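stage 2 :: seqdesign
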C-alpha cells in the first residue's frame, strides 16, 4: 500500500531544513576560513568557495 505525502507536511519539513542550514552556514564559513588561512590546501579553498556561494545565496534569497 502506497502512502501519499501530505503537501503541507513536506513543505514544512523543507522549510525547517532550509532554516537550519541558513543558521549554520555562517559559522561553518567562518570556521572554514580560519582553517584555510592556517592550513591551506586545494580542498579547503574549494570548500570555502562553496560555503561563501551558499551563504550569499541565502542572504540574497536565491535558494
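stage 2 :: out
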Amino acid at each position: 500500500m502506497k502512502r501519499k505525502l501530505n503537501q503541507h507536511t513536506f513543505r514544512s519539513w523543507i522549510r525547517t531544513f532550509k532554516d537550519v542550514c541558513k543558521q549554520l552556514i555562517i559559522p561553518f564559513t567562518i570556521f572554514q576560513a580560519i582553517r584555510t588561512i592556517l592550513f591551506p590546501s586545494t580542498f579547503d579553498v574549494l570548500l570555502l568557495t562553496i560555503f561563501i556561494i551558499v551563504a550569499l545565496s541565502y542572504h540574497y534569497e536565491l535558494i
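stage 3 :: structure notes
- The first helix runs from residue 7 to 38.
- The helical segments are 7-38, 42-59.
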